[in-house]
User: Fold this.
Amino acid sequence: MDSPAVSQGKAPVSLFILTHNEEANIAACLESVGWAGEVFVLDSDSNDRTVEIARRLGAQVHSHAFEGYWKQRNWGLDHLPFTDPWVLVLDADERIPPALAHEIKSVVSHGSLAAAGYYIDRRFFFLGKCLKHGSLSPNWILRLFKRHAGRFEERPFNEHVILEGPAGYLKNPLHHVDLRPISTWVAKHNLYADLQAEEYLGDRDRRFPVSLQPSLSGSPVQKKRWLRLRLWNRLPLLLRPFLYFLLNYVFKGGFLDGGPGFIYHVLWSFWFPFLVDVKILERKAARKRNSPPAINPPGR
Assistant:
């Protein structure tokens, strides 16, 4: 049985959030983590009320020019004045429900010291509905870890925490609820498509350090990396978005989430991967245009 201090007091956890123009989301996110020992917001040149709202709700706000997701997160882990032994990394459009908050407080206060970090299942809400099918659940991500045991790998997109030590799994999910308009979602995923196109080409050129070993028998993120490198990246461009939509919406039951599920999968399972593939082809064509002409050796 947890003590009243664990159930009602602050937990030895430092919350860490990246922001850029998140005034629609930041208040709900911060209000869901009032139990955290300290809250840090690392902002990148927001020109809305994000910083004002975060400070009003008690967050320590720092600024740093955005250089990429993994660089930004690692800069924060290295330079922000964390004092708690645990770090919980969130996006501004994510929330910690009471059941998960209680579980986190219990784990970091009384849990096994053998675990250096914990995976959390992320549930997606879209147009007011929790999407439970079509590869969206479970969605395991490592977001809670001992401060000196985790760093983000050097990748432009799909970056994961590299953990020194064993990981556990929490039972209760966090919620992803973006309150911004769909136009913001489209603009954000247009940026993500650029990053994923660069990641695809970087993987082909072997430009990234091998910090997370792909493995079908490993952790959830190792399995995702195996599927991406060994299967997804080998499928024909422009065909794979159709296959991905068919897999998620039909075979994995995305249609069971009704109208919101259909809209989300058209956007996320088809439109977004299709845009990525077009940007990959665009970059390949640019490489060919800019490559020097082949030099044929003189005949003998």
